[in-house]
Amino acid sequence: MARDNEDILRWLDAAISALKSEFKAAQDGLAQQISAANNTLGDLMEILAGKTSSGAGDHEEKLEPALRELAGRERAEGAATQHVAEIEKNVRELKSEVALLRSQEAWLVAANQDLSERLVMIRTEGKVAARNLDAAETENQRLRKTFAEKEAQIQALQRQVEHLQDNAPEVAKRLSKDVTSLRYDNTRLRAAVEDAEAKIEGRDKQQRILLESLFTNGRTCRIGELLVSAGVIRREQLDEALKDQDAGRKKLLGAILTEKGFAREEEVSQAVACQCRVPFVFLANDAVSKEAARLVDVHTCQEHQCIPVRCDSERVFLAMANPRDNAAFTTVEQKSGRRVIPFVATPTDVSSAIRSVYGPH
């Protein structure tokens, strides 16, 4: 598209140059016609003054064609003047088109730069997510294998219990306890497997949200529409949440979707991060540095659902549940004396980090 604009601009420049040449030629022709008209007018003046040696009849014979020629030249001069005016108008219009195309070209360059930066960010986050998915898949396979081994042990012990129950009550009782213990361990392993599978599914949905946000081509996309496009929620679920929101519930759409179980917090927060074009992070137990936490008091963090995670001499990196909270930006910048760099985290992660760092309040 940029190449097409360059071709159009070159064509317009050539057209303007051609019009300028035509305008110059028209001016030269007009000047020649004016000069000839002046000469004819001088001849007429001489005739009228009687400076020629011819008689009155000769004067009239010479005067009539001269007047016709003069009238013709006046019409030609008027037509040339009108033609020059039209050329000047065309030049002004072409210059306006050139200016408009140059502004469009600048906008396209800026939009392309923004899209390139977002693509780099998406690719970086995609690599991190891919590594996390591989690790989660490996752990899931290990847990499945352990689960199967435990299940086999349970069945073997159960058979031993049934065999020894009549002849060795004490042994059977001990084995029953072992079976109970193994079943408890197996239940925990099953829960771990389900949790690992849920994390894999959640990260897959986050990847789809990132890709769908990239396909918006820089346009602002509503969170609900982004979640529907990524296959996280269904259209009827979005309609139900919007209906609840319109009914007077003073809650954000993402909170309603989470409460109804239509989407996980991580998926809603990822969509918010894509919409606001800031990174999404998970807050691990050691994610918050003590130096950063000392820059802001606990009441500010609780009020605005945010917490500083890192800082340097000029910036403070702030994890936020709501990156649109401009009051949080202003307050943290005033208290820390540093420029705020926002991240998006889930409300649960932010609340947990505040309790872990500042203690219960």
Describe the SSE topology.
Elements: H1 2-49, H2 56-164, H3 169-215, H4 223-229, H5 235-246, H6 253-259, H7 265-276, H8 290-293, H9 298-304, E1 306-311, E2 315-320, H10 326-336, E3 339-344, H11 347-358
Parallel strand pairs: 2-3
Antiparallel strand pairs: 1-2
Question: What would your notes on this structure say?
Answer:
The chain is mainly alpha-helical and 361 residues long. The protein has four domains: 2-113; 140-198; 216-277, no CATH class; 290-358, Type II secretion system, protein E, N-terminal domain (GMP Synthetase, Chain A, domain 3, 2-Layer Sandwich), CATH 3.30.300.160. It has helices spanning 2-49, 56-164, 169-215, 223-229, 235-246, 253-259, 265-276, 290-293, 298-304, 326-336, 347-358; strands at 306-311, 315-320, 339-344. It has a three-stranded mixed sheet with strand order 1-2-3. Strand 1 (306-311) and strand 2 (315-320) form a beta hairpin. Helix 2 (56-164) runs antiparallel to helix 3 (169-215). The two termini are 58 Å apart.
Keywords summarizing the entry:
361 residues; mainly alpha; three-stranded mixed beta sheet; 11 helices; 76% helix
What's the number of structural domains?
A: 4
Helix count equals 11
Distance between the termini: 58 Å
Number of β-strand runs:
3
For the biggest sheet, the summary is: 3 strands, mixed
Unreliable stretches: 51-56
Tell me the strand order in the biggest sheet. Answer: 1-2-3
What is the helix/strand order?
Answer: HHHHHHHHHEEHEH
Give a short summary of the structure.
With 361 residues, this protein is mainly α. The protein contains eleven helices and three strands.
